[in-house]
Every structure is written in structure tokens, then in C-alpha cells.
Automatic annotation (TrEMBL):
Residues 28-66, 108-169 form the PKD domain. SMART domains: PKD. This is PKD domain-containing protein. SUPFAM superfamilies: PKD domain. InterPro entries: Ig-like_fold, PKD/Chitinase_dom, PKD_dom, PKD_dom_sf. Pfam families: CHU_C, PKD_4. Signal peptide: none annotated. It comes from marine sediment metagenome.
């Protein structure tokens, strides 16, 4: 008999091989897969679950004796993709998201941030962790794909998204008409529950979220302080010491800190109209 089988390709674990036995003049077959496993099938299928170099031996018997044929197959180590990221909530164009690469057996890494951008980092680099700053609000799932030089790969998708929120912003109107029936007002009014029909009768920033620290002052043309608050939900009614201020242009000054930690300081003027 003549033992023979088609060439086998090397591959990444787990690697399944379908053997094609081309032996001639044989009656029985004994396969030794090099890892302690055997088969007596004529054309067996076998899966390697461990990495290594394996000597595959086929022994055939038939009229006139026996014969053997061997090949060596390389089973490559498959990488294991794994990472953590922090923080899971950021603001637009602010703090970067840091990904801690905990992968095994990788030679290069592809980070896909979920917003259309990606970064590739090689194992030869000093740092294989990755950082990304998001420029649009939304929820984004990070994906890491790990590659080896032998062509093996593994992919991991984060089990929760990065939440990107808009940065804080403050905008002020340039004029408002006060409530003429607010005699006795100290100048301040909680505006978070004011109806839409009444909201324009108070001076306040219409964007009220994403601001942690806040200090608003309003002065008349002689520099006298007529209103002050540290509550962003409190607007000026147009009154001072219980009396309606006269129609005029007033100067406002506001300073504080957005929720992303960035300080702000702005000034402008507001026209009080009857």
C-alpha cells in the first residue's frame, strides 16, 4: 500500500481540518493527530483546540504490508480581546475616554469608537491603551479587534455604551417686558415652572442645564446692583426693592463653571421695555 493524503493548511485555534485520504491499495487506516488523539476513519475531520506544532501521521495497511505518511501542521494561538473603559459618561469635546487594554497574545489592535473614527496601535508601541475624545453627543459602543502576526483575530464589543452629553451653554435675551402687576417683588422669580405665555416676562438664561456654578449680577447705568442670584433657575422680574425699574438698558455680568469643569465669564446688556 501507499499512504498519502492531501496537504493540510495551518490555521488559528480552534482549527478544523477535513482530511482527504488519497492512499492506494490500503484496507485499514490509523490516523495519529500528534496531540494524543487517533482515528480509524478513512477521511476523518478533526479540530485542534490548542496552539502548537503537530505531526500528523497516517499509517495504512493492505496486501503486502503497511506504509506511513506524515505532515506537520501549525496551529496558531488565537488572541483574546478584552478591555475596560473609563469614564462611561463624558461631555462633547471635553474629557477623553480611556480604554485599558487587557487583551492577551495580540500583536496589533484596532479600536473602533462607534462614531466613525478608529485607531490602530501596534504591540511594539510603548503604550497599547487608547484614548478618544467625542465631538458629537450620543451613545457609542466601543469595539476592539486584536490581531496576531499569523492572521488570527478576536473582537470584543463593549457591553455598555459611552454616553456623550452636550457641553454646557448659556444664552441671554437682549430685551424683555416685565409683569406690570408684580409690585413688591424683590426682583427674583423661580422660572423653572413658569408657563410659556409668561416666560418672556423674566430675564434668565433659556438653557438651564449642564451648569454647576452660577453667579448673575445686573446693574443699572449708574453701576448700582439691582439684582443678583446664584440660582440659574431664578430670573430677574425687572423690579428692584419692590418697585418696577424704569425703561432703560441694564448691564448684566455672569460667571461660573460648566458641568464639564470649564469656567465661563460673560457680560452683556438687557433692555427693559414696558
Amino acid at each position: 500500500p501507499i499512504a498519502q493524503y492531501d496537504p493540510v493548511e495551518s490555521g488559528c485555534m480552534p482549527w478544523t481540518i477535513q482530511f482527504n485520504n488519497t492512499s492506494r491499495f490500503a484496507d485499514t487506516y490509523l490516523w495519529n493527530f500528534g496531540d494524543g488523539s487517533i482515528s480509524k476513519a478513512q477521511n476523518p475531520e478533526y479540530t485542534y483546540f490548542e496552539a502548537g506544532s503537530f505531526n500528523i501521521r497516517l499509517k495504512v495497511t493492505g496486501p503486502g504490508g503497511s506504509d506511513e505518511y506524515t505532515q506537520i501542521v501549525e496551529i496558531y494561538q488565537k488572541p483574546v480581546a478584552n478591555f475596560d473603559f473609563t469614564p462611561d459618561s463624558v461631555y462633547v469635546n471635553d474629557q477623553p475616554v480611556k480604554c485599558l487594554n487587557r487583551s492577551l497574545y495580540g500583536d496589533s489592535y484596532l479600536w473602533e469608537w462607534g462614531d466613525g473614527y478608529s485607531d490602530t496601535i501596534a504591540q511594539t508601541d510603548t503604550v497599547i491603551d487608547a484614548y478618544h475624545i467625542y465631538s458629537d453627543e450620543g451613545e457609542y459602543y466601543i469595539t476592539l479587534t486584536v490581531y496576531t502576526d499569523n492572521g488570527c483575530e478576536d473582537t470584543r464589543l463593549a457591553n455598555q455604551p459611552v454616553r456623550v452629553e452636550p457641553a454646557g451653554e448659556i444664552r441671554y435675551p437682549t430685551a424683555f417686558r416685565p409683569n406690570m402687576n408684580n409690585e413688591g417683588s424683590d426682583g427674583g422669580q423661580e422660572v423653572s415652572n413658569i408657563s410659556a405665555s409668561e416666560i418672556n416676562r423674566y430675564f434668565f438664561p433659556p438653557v438651564k442645564e449642564k451648569v454647576y456654578e452660577y453667579h448673575l449680577q445686573i446693574f443699572n447705568r449708574w453701576g448700582e446692583l439691582v439684582f443678583e442670584t446664584i440660582d440659574i433657575n431664578t430670573g430677574w422680574t425687572g423690579y428692584y426693592k419692590g418697585k418696577l425699574c424704569k425703561q432703560d438698558v441694564y448691564v448684566w455680568l455672569v460667571e461660573g463653571k460648566y458641568s464639564n469643569g470649564k469656567p465661563f465669564k460673560k457680560a452683556g446688556d438687557i433692555t427693559l421695555l414696558y
